[in-house]
Every structure is written in structure tokens, then in C-alpha cells.
Amino acid sequence: MVRLNVKPTRMELNNLKERLKTAERGHKLLKDKRDELMRRFISLIRENNRLRKEVESYLIDNLKSFAVAKSLKNSLMVEELFSIPSKEIELFVEKENIMSVTVPRMHMNITSQNENSEYSYLSSNSEMDDVFATMNSLIDKLLRLAEVE
């Protein structure tokens, strides 16, 4: 506790009462801010756990399917299938201020979808097509997971 050198007058008493009220209000505001930050942090942790489980299960299933699809094709053919990207994606990272805490926000812009890409459904198999489609649909979830983490 800090000891103040105070003159024993009524005016000093009123000034000290005002300072005490201000300090108590500031303390309450800081406690409320801490509680709100913790509430948001806990909700982000829950979302992170949910997204991580979902993405990991998709990736595990997709990698198993890819292993099966790759075993049915020549490795050079598989490399050729995935050498040309099917989408061109721009990633924008912005910083957002939430209660004086800077957090990143990521936005994705798919600039071009190569409809006439070199990916041929004739030279691949159905497992490879499923892997391709699943990985394309997983991009949004991966981006959200990166943002939350």
C-alpha cells in the first residue's frame, strides 16, 4: 500500500475520495475487459479444437485415398496430374483490433479456376478424382484453422 503525504483538510479528503472512485471504476473496467477476453479466447479454443479434429479426419481419410489412388497409377503420371494447379488463390492477411489485442484476419480470393486445366479425368482414376475434390473443398477450413490458431 502506498502511503501518501496528505494534508488533513476536507478538500484533500474529497480529492482522495474522487481518486479512489476513479481507481475503482478503472479496476472494474479492467476486470470486465479481462473476463470478455477470456470468454472470447475460450470460444476460439473450442472452435480450434473442433476445426482441428474435422480437418485432421479429412486429411487422414484423404491421404489414405491418395495412397490407394497412387498405388493404382504410375508415380510419373501422378506427378503429372498434380503439376498444374487447378486454382489460383490470393491470400489477404489483415490485422483486426479486438479490445486492444491485434488478431490476424485472413481472406481468400480465388482469382481463376482453370476449367481447361491439364488434369484429365481419363488419365486418372476415381480415387484420384475424389482426392482432388476433397482437397479443393478443404482449403476454406484450413484457412479458418490457420486464422484461429
TrEMBL record:
A GO molecular-function annotation: proton-transporting ATPase activity, rotational mechanism
Origin superkingdom: Bacteria
Coiled coil residues, start to end: 13-54
Keywords in alphabetical order: ATP synthesis, Coiled coil, Hydrogen ion transport, Ion transport, Transport
Record-level GO BP terms: ATP biosynthetic process
Presence of keyword Transport: yes
Protein family (similarity comment): Belongs to the V-ATPase D subunit family.
NCBIfam families given in the database record: V_ATPase_subD
The protein's name: V-type ATP synthase subunit D
Organism of provenance: Streptococcus pneumoniae
